């Protein structure tokens, strides 16, 4: 079994960072193969933007969903998004740790906007 943990907090030693660490150790002890994405530590850019795409369906206007669909069809999804999507698709279990203040306008919301959630 595979588990993937997503941590969205700017301080890895925070309460949420500790939760992610405990989650990882408990899941590994239970026999899971665990991967972890620490979005802040990894420098994940949560803001969807035209600059993420080397090929565009329309240069004059940026529409995130159109570009995501266009690039997915051409297998040119941005490398960070493709790597995270692979981890998510491989997981049998997903654990997400983020503070509530991060849920609307912060990392977790923009993480989903980039097509990952």
Describe this structure in words.
- The chain has about 120 residues and is α/β, with parallel strands linked by helices.
- The chain has one domain (about 1-115): Flavodoxin domain (Rossmann fold, 3-Layer(aba) Sandwich).
- Helices cover about 40% and strands about 15% of the residues.
- The chain is built from 4 helices and 3 strands; from the N terminus they run βαβααβα.
- The protein has helices at about 15-30, 65-75, 80-90, 105-115, and strands at about 1-5, 35-40, 95.
- A 3-stranded parallel beta sheet has the order 2-1-3, with helices on both faces.
- Helix 1 links the parallel strand 1 (about 1-5) and strand 2 (about 35-40).
- The longest helix has 15 residues, at about 15-30.
- It is elongated, with a radius of gyration of 15 Å.
- The model has no long low-confidence stretch (mean pLDDT about 85).
């Amino acid at each position: 079994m595979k588990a993937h943990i997503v941590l969205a907090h700017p301080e890895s030693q925070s309460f949420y960072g500790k939760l992610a660490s405990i989650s990882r150790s408990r899941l590994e002890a239970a026999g899971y193969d665990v991967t972890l994405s620490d979005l802040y530590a990894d420098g994940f850019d949560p803001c969807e933007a035209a600059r993420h795409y080397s090929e565009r369906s329309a240069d004059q206007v940026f529409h995130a969903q159109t570009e995501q669909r266009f690039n997915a069809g051409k297998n040119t999804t941005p490398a960070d998004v493709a790597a995270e999507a692979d981890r998510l698709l491989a997981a049998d279990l997903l654990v997400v740790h983020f503070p509530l203040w991060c849920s609307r306008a912060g990392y977790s919301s923009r993480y989903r906007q980039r097509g990952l959630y």
